[in-house]
Amino acid sequence: MREQSPDMATEISGLNKWYGSFHVLKDIDLTVAAGSRIVICGPSGSGKSTLIRCINGLETYQGGSIALGGVKLGDNAKETTLARRDTGMVFQSFNLFPHLTVLSNCTLALRRVLKMSRRQAEDIALHYLEKVRIPEQAKKYPAQLSGGQQQRVAIARALCLSPRLMLFDEPTSALDPEMIKEVLDVMVSLASEGMTMLCVTHEMGFAREVADQVIFMDQGRIVEQARPDIFFGAPSHARAQQFLEKILH
Amino acid sequence: MGFDLSFALSTVPTILGAIGTTLLVALISCLGAAGIGFGFEMLRRSGGLSGYAVRFLIDFIRATPVLAWLYFLYFVLPFYGIRLGALTVGILGLSVYFSGYLAEVFKAGIDAIPKGQSEASRAVGLSRIDTIIFIIAPQMLRNIAAPLGNYFVSILKATPYLAVLAVPEMLGQAFDIASDTYRYAEPLTVAGILFLLLALAISQAVKRVETRLLGSNRR
Ligand SMILES: Nc1ncnc2c1ncn2[C@@H]1O[C@H](COP(=O)(O)OP(=O)(O)OP(=O)(O)O)[C@@H](O)[C@H]1O
Ligand SMILES: [Mg+2]
């Protein structure tokens, strides 16, 4: 594990993005300090996925800047690639590689990107598969696992590269209710180990338990940013209130 | 004059002697067509000017008869100082001709892969090339094993076109025997049966590969 130091923060400032004429992200300013855990929520279409996809380079943007650990993305292609390697991504639909075993899903990048030997890569992969409590499934193919198990493998796959920032995009919303907890448990223990996390989720119990900041997005803007006790106690923005009422029934 | 079985059997060694040429042409043409077709599809996907050029080229290839390619490569290229042997021309012609079709097959196979696959690959830091080799190509092959196998059989069945260049493949040999002896039924039947056996063998092999791919790839 690498040490978390303040200069490893992620700095987003004045971020603007358009899809054609549709203004999807508007003047986003956000600092993710090393070791912090930020939960993003908001109605469908508010730009949550787009924001975190910009951070790891799956989307381009037209205005503002994103800096990972002091490296401004886009300035220098090589540095950008290296900085992006410091972010891990977990998708709503797992996106495991179906033609590879669980173990190979985890070792592929270690071997191809970090040029590790098979043994070295497998040792690391097994370490993280243990961490997500699934080492016994290493030889299986993704389709042989339950959704919850697949998502835990996806988390292990991302952790293998020792990211400094973990991005989650609704990691539990494609799961059956009985599997949500096993994934959230893994995320809680990651948080307790000090992993920096930026997590889009509507699991408000999780947000209460681990988040030190909750962000509410609406129509491409960060409308509210507050500690969870304050956010859940008395959100200051009317849209956030309505949203919370809907989601907490 | 009925079908003379012993005469038929006597033609087998000569015709079978050409099976090596037929298989060699078919095999290299399959690899060539797959390689060129995959390259075309990658260029087409990359968009831009080369993408447009390749799109046009694929349509052009698919609109020309295979014989036109063989004649062009054999008789027209020397005019520009490029002189290739008959066997090379035959293999090249079949490769180019079928690459246009295989590009379409590859396209379908890639389109069927969820977008999240290449995103996940980029997210773990794999390069573009590694993404193609380790993530896209294997899933594409699984998606298209059946149509790909059909095209391989089609390539085998197109090898007799090389007779126009006097390449000694199976059907050409059979025809030579026929014109020497004025007996057509026997040698052509023998050649037909041998082609049938080869085609069956290829389809069987493809089916095996397909079940193996699917077996280890259950979604
Ligand atoms: N590739 C695209 N082209 C055009 N518009 C897009 C594209 N991707 C997303 N959008 C639009 O951008 C907006 C924000 O999308 P985004 O996926 O970021 O929302 P979200 O907050 O994650 O919503 P959800 O809760 O449904 O996941 C939506 O209105 C969506 O329709
Ligand atoms: Mg989303």
Automatic annotation (TrEMBL), chain B:
Membrane topology category: Multi-pass membrane protein
PROSITE patterns given in the database record: ABC_TM1 (PS50928)
UniProt keyword list: Amino-acid transport, Cell membrane, Membrane, Transmembrane, Transmembrane helix, Transport
GO molecular function, one term: transmembrane transporter activity
Transmembrane feature ranges: 15-40, 52-74, 80-98, 148-168, 188-206
Subcellular location: Cell inner membrane; Cell membrane
Family matches, as Pfam families: BPD_transp_1
InterPro entries attached to this UniProt entry: AA_ABC_transptr_permease_3TM, ArtM/GltK/GlnP/TcyL/YhdX-like, MetI-like, MetI-like_sf
GO cellular component, one term: ATP-binding cassette (ABC) transporter complex
Top-rank taxon, per record: Bacteria
Gene Ontology biological process terms, A to Z: amino acid transport
Domain ABC transmembrane type-1 positions: 19-206
Family: Belongs to the binding-protein-dependent transport system permease family. HisMQ subfamily.
Name the record gives this protein: Amino acid ABC transporter permease
Source species of the chain: Mesorhizobium zhangyense
